[in-house]
Here is the input.
Amino acid sequence: MMCSVEAAEALARRGVLSESTAADALRTFARDGRLIALRGDRRWVYPRFQLDYFDPRDPNNIICAINRVLDAGRYPEAATSWWTLPSVALPGMRPPVNLLGGDHDALRQLASEYASGADR
Here is the structure.
């Protein structure tokens, strides 16, 4: 997990966000469901796995797309669990996060099935 300052710095280093707007932008992205934000001890924290692949400039960004399907803005804990817990739908009971940077079509399908209740 990264606090909002660390998350903002990580995205600014990648050129995804400007340093002057990064912290405010993170909260906006979390509110609209593009990014998972969890309430920590007196601050917001962001699961690290999503920041390596998050780019709000890309309309087809895999993190934004999946988090919206999972309704991460309203259910961030459930979205985090979906990403990080082993899935019976994947070979070797791997967590969906292991598909980042690889099979994004499979991620989209898994998330859609989960959101529709088809995998339960």
